[in-house]
Amino acid sequence: MKIAVTGGSGFIGSHVVDQLVAAGHDVLVLDGRRPDYAPHVAHRSVDVVDVDAMTAALRGVDIVYHLAGASDVDKALNDPLGTVRLNVQGTASVAEAARRNNVRRVIFASTVWVYGATVGDSPLGETAPVSLADAGHIYTSTKLAGEMVLHSFAELYDLRFTILRYGIPYGPRMRDALVIAKFVQKALAGQRLTIAGDGLQVRNFVYVEDLARAHVLALDDAAQNEVLALDGAVPVTIREIAETVIELVGTPVAIERVPARPGDYAGRVISTERAAEVLGWHATTPFREGVRQYLDWYTDQRNAEAEQAS
Ligand SMILES: NC(=O)c1ccc[n+]([C@@H]2O[C@H](COP(=O)([O-])OP(=O)(O)OC[C@H]3O[C@@H](n4cnc5c(N)ncnc54)[C@H](O)[C@@H]3O)[C@@H](O)[C@H]2O)c1
């Protein structure tokens, strides 16, 4: 199949591209930057908000994965308009370009942060009602808006979608600013680890290769017009992350507490049963193993950079 991946040069997109290529698909990365990790993969530098450029880029494409989006919630907090432009207008632009090209489906990167705006008892399913007054973070409201745009395009123009609500992903190639990466890098440097709030916030981190596997499974027609939560299997507290990292790195560094960030996702208990039913998907990588994979990747990178510099 001919598959386009917006944001295919980014952290999650790069793993999705790797697995689509491994599954034998003809992959085109649509991203403002080149996919350095996979120079052999076709790439087109496109701004997803530019609907004419997107329309040209999606010619002949069967399926588009739309991952280009604001991913750093702290940057989103400081740039609400830019976040709306990229996450809402960008998603509408991809949907419109897909409609013009009769693309079979748009598979969209949403987030479990949207559950922060839902009401209902835990574990929350994909049909948990949204409370607009609880939109909270601009990142959350723009991802919810992106989901709504896709629902509208399905209803009005029969453009099919799959909405994937990612848990908090981690693993090789993640941004240095993500909490697990920060902890690993600080622990390796012998610096203390800082925790926002009491450190007891629960997250179901999902290993990025598990997440990417779900994207390939989502090509099945069974995933058409489905909303699926892809969360990690086991809840982990921020404090447990710090302790796991300290143990794996093997350096006894201190843990320090700082005030919580405004609008931070408080963590909800989310059901992944629908993804199991529709895709046969479960996150299978144990947290400690995923952190170890990241640590190995990070130290290999650092050693390669040091070798190049010498
Ligand atoms: N990382 C997370 O914690 C997380 C969690 C849930 C959902 N998501 C969502 O998953 C998606 C991918 O996240 P990620 O962590 O891989 O992000 P990332 O920042 O690593 O990658 C995003 C990619 O999109 C590209 N991009 C940004 N704006 C663009 C534009 N206007 N046109 C074309 N390309 C553009 C960037 O160059 C980058 O390669 C995002 O939509 C994000 O909101 C991320």
Question: Mind explaining what this structure looks like?
Answer:
The chain has a seven-stranded parallel beta sheet with strand order 3-2-1-4-5-6-11, with helices on both faces. The radius of gyration is 19 Å and the shape is globular. The model has no long low-confidence stretch (mean pLDDT 94). The chain has helices spanning 11-22, 51-57, 73-78, 80-100, 138-157, 179-188, 208-217, 238-249, 273-279, 287-309, and strands at 2-6, 26-30, 42-44, 63-66, 105-111, 161-166, 169-170, 193-196, 202-203, 206-207, 226-230, 236-237, 255-258. With 310 residues, the chain is α/β, with parallel strands linked by helices. It has a single domain, classed as NAD(P)-binding Rossmann-like Domain (Rossmann fold, 3-Layer(aba) Sandwich). 41% of the residues lie in helices and 16% in strands. It has ten helices and 13 strands. Helix 1 (11-22) crosses helix 7 (208-217) and helix 4 (80-100) runs parallel beside helix 5. Nicotinamide-adenine-dinucleotide (NAD) binds next to helix 1, helix 4 and strand 5.
Task: Produce the secondary structure layout.
Layout: E1 2-6, H1 11-22, E2 26-30, E3 42-44, H2 51-57, E4 63-66, H3 73-78, H4 80-100, E5 105-111, H5 138-157, E6 161-166, E7 169-170, H6 179-188, E8 193-196, E9 202-203, E10 206-207, H7 208-217, E11 226-230, E12 236-237, H8 238-249, E13 255-258, H9 273-279, H10 287-309
Helix pairs in contact: 1-7, 2-4, 4-5, 6-8, 8-10
